[in-house]
Amino acid sequence: MSFDKAEIEMLMDGVLAWPAVQDMMREAKDEDRFDKYVEIVQERVPWDDRILLPLTPALSIVARDGRRIVKCRCGHEFGDYRVNWKLSSLIYVRDDEESLSEVYQGREMPDPSWTQVREYVCPGCGTQLEVEAVPRGCPPDFDFLPDLDTFYEDWLGRPLPDKAEYTDLTLATISEWTG
Ligand SMILES: [Zn+2]
User: Fold this and answer.
1) Are 84 and 142 in contact, with CB atoms under 8 Å apart?
2) Which of the residues 60, 95, 101, 167 has the least number of beta carbons within 10 Å of its own beta carbon?
3) Where are the alpha helices (DSSP H) in 4-157?
């Protein structure tokens, strides 16, 4: 079964891409579907770095100079994909009643002494990349670290030309900063 491009485009908008890709692949092991999906995302960005995996509507993991980095559709680069990209974004925190009430209009507002809302924004284009409501002081949630090599090798049946150790480098990066 071949997948209609328009259908894939509908699936794409407004969803976290990696979980959607996994669902897509689980339903039908149709690598053509993934390729079309990446093709669409690639057509929408103004740069040429090869997209390995879309992460969110704005962010993708791309191959660049032998590295795998997270890149915004505007071209802003967030660095190694194994480090939570949120560390390199602009972060706006709402943690008092006034600022929280702006986003919780008409809905039950969380207790500001426990909860904060963080908005992660691309420094390049100002796009709001993600919003999370978390307990105060809790580190940024690393939504998902895709195992790119396994995905390409086992799911798509064509390994990537290079390999990267599948490991979360976020904590190592934070300790470099504070070390
Ligand atoms: Zn951007």
Assistant:
1) yes
2) 167
3) 5-12, 17-27, 31-44, 97-103, 148-150
- How far is Cα 101 from Cα 80, in angstroms, rounded to an integer? 35
How far does residue 111's CA lie from ligand 1's centre (Å)?
31
**DSSP assignment of 88-125:** GSEEEEE-SHHHHHHHSTTSPPPPTTTEEEEEEE-TTT
Distance from C-alpha of 37 to C-alpha of 20, rounded to nearest angstrom: 11
Q: How far is the CA of 39 from the centre of ligand 1 (A)?
A: 19
Distance 72 CA to ligand 1 centre (A): 5
Residues in CB range of 43: below 8 A, 6 or more apart: none
Q: pLDDT class for 2, splitting at 50, 70, 90?
A: very low
Q: How far is the CA of 130 from the centre of ligand 1 (A)?
A: 12
